[in-house]
Amino acid sequence: MSTPVASLSSDRIAKLDALLDRQEILDALTRFSRAMDRFDRDLFLSAFHNDATIAAGSFVGGPVDLYDWSTAMHAQGQKATHHNLLNHTCDLDGDTAHTETYYLFAARNVDDSNWIAGGRYIDRLERRDGEWRIALRTNVIEWSGMVPSMDIPFADVPDVYANGTPARDTSDPSYTRPLANVRQPSIPR
């Protein structure tokens, strides 16, 4: 049974507002990660305010320059990347939020070696014109290492990519709408 909005207490409405804000903030952080892995410039820039400052490794600057620098670096060094978001805390203060988001970065390098690294994105987000975006980011890299390489599982299955081939652009199957299966039923024995 649903509760009519009019009967919600002001405390409950405030908690719902905060929950919506936290989700919009997490959505902005997720847009950044997805955009990095898919080389989606528009999606990447939608995670940041135009005047944002980002400090990441040797880079300190704005979102446009970060996109150009980081995608060139990843295109030269890796065949595929995964920017995974993990533990996330968010302190809301009106139209400002301070977040700490743990991440795990994994990459298949051009030489087929595998690189992983972990750290935290420490962000200040601001809501401007009703939209939460990153205004300041510090990337704290805390560890890094190589893991043994092995063949990608199921790469030898003839139609494994029939529903779409992984790509570092918007031809990736994650952009397909509506998503559909064209592979034939197969139950390995």
Automatic annotation (TrEMBL):
<dbReference type="InterPro" id="IPR037401">
    <property type="entry name" value="SnoaL-like"/>
</dbReference>
<dbReference type="InterPro" id="IPR032710">
    <property type="entry name" value="NTF2-like_dom_sf"/>
</dbReference>
<dbReference type="Pfam" id="PF13577">
    <property type="entry name" value="SnoaL_4"/>
</dbReference>
<protein>
    <submittedName>
        <fullName>Nuclear transport factor 2 family protein</fullName>
    </submittedName>
</protein>
<feature type="region of interest" description="Disordered">
    <location>
        <begin position="163"/>
        <end position="189"/>
    </location>
</feature>
<feature type="domain" description="SnoaL-like">
    <location>
        <begin position="18"/>
        <end position="138"/>
    </location>
</feature>
